[in-house]
Design a protein that fits this description.
The chain is of the alpha/beta class. The protein folds into 2 domains: 181 residues, Alpha-Beta Complex (Aspartate Aminotransferase, domain 1), CATH 3.90.1150.10; 247 residues, Aspartate Aminotransferase, domain 2 (3-Layer(aba) Sandwich), CATH 3.40.640.10. The chain has a 7-stranded mixed sheet, sandwiched between helices. A hairpin with a 4-residue loop joins strand 2 and strand 3. Helix 7 runs parallel beside helix 8. It binds pyridoxal-5'-phosphate. The site of pyridoxal-5'-phosphate has 15 residues, from helix 4.
Length: 438
Amino acid sequence: MVQKSRSHSLFVAAKKHMPGGVSSPVRAFGAVGGEPLFLAKAKGAYIWDVDDNRYIDYVGSWGPAILGHTRDEVVEAIIEAARDGLSFGAPTEAETKLAQEISKAMPQLEKVRFVSSGTEACMSAIRLARAFTSRDKILKFEGNYHGHADSLLAKAGSGLATFGIPTSPGVTKACAKDTLTVPYNKLEAVKEIFEKNPEEIAAVIVEPLAGNCGFVRPVPGFLKGLKALCKQYGALLIVDEVMTGFRVAHGGMQSVESVEGDLTTLGKVIGGGMPLAAYGGRQDIMDRIAPLGDVYQAGTLSGNPLATACGLKTLEILSKPGVYKQLGNLTHKLVNGLIELGKQCSIPIVADSEGGMFGMFFADEPVTDFAGAQASNTGLFAHYFQKMLQKGIYLAPSAYEAGFVSTAHTDKDIEQTLHAAKESLEEIKQENLHLSNK
Ligand SMILES: *Cc1c(COP(=O)(O)O)cnc(C)c1O
């Protein structure tokens, strides 16, 4: 039995001083029961909690840790930058280098603006799209998550999906009225909305591979269809690659699907674990941002030198040939193993991956939208999660989250994980937990 006494007492103390004891909701383990682990350190593919238990990590700080944790070259780059100054609030050469590195991998980002979180990136891209088109409404997809800006909280994924919050109180009616939502992967529904609002929609914002309601792949033609509809009706396509950018491929999901958004948002991997995000795209649109244009957006810590150094070193390592192929193969091996185990144990499992991102549902059929994700057996996932944790495997504590493999994971780590999954599924069978309802 894994000992968790220090995590428990730290959680008790944290709850006295912070709502739910956490700085972000899903961390509280509410969806899977039990209490969160308090983490002490991380290296490569592993994390250690404060009770000194070691886990193979598939959360990777929710995506950024693509090279594994605290890789020496990355930590060195941050220390070196720190010696020269923690923050200037003035331009640095490293920002240009990072922007260049991003544009090299994703040429549709002709110009890039740095911010500190994915939330800021998406919120700012929406403001820019509204200004550029002189329109108010935006269209988003159910179960997609674009951060917690007011206009993007309607029917959102991630923590809102985990806790069953359709749209947060505190968002004004006026704001909610301008956000239209349709099911993911339903191009027909998008077409209908455009027909009803032909000159009102400023932008469609989409996760090009949905990762905040589990792992949900776009059906063939979906993204290309969105692009065509946006063009036809004079709306902008904002591709939110905060999770998928530099994660599923060097050029993001847009390179996998051969689609280019007018604007793209990035975060997570591009900061390598430091608070850094960006939005970018067509130069004629980006040049509307102040100081060149009239659309205001700013940030005291934007382009912070430590975050920039960390992101730059991370992208530099990721640009080496073969990185994504190897990462993709390893992730594929994990997913194939899970599918195979589902068959062996007669527990319906669907699983899928792209690059270093994967997901698994306890479901009979492939999941293509949020309703499908909600129909999966999330109760069974909670049992599976706890059993895996007991065996030293750290998964995201919600059925509505994707998983991440890093370049630091080895074949042996994957084999150990599959071994733990086999034992967990066998226990679930023996205890008849697979018969339990959600
Ligand atoms: C994580 C995420 C965000 C929000 O980024 P934060 O840095 O958490 O604010 C936005 N969009 C997508 C697709 C994400 O996965």
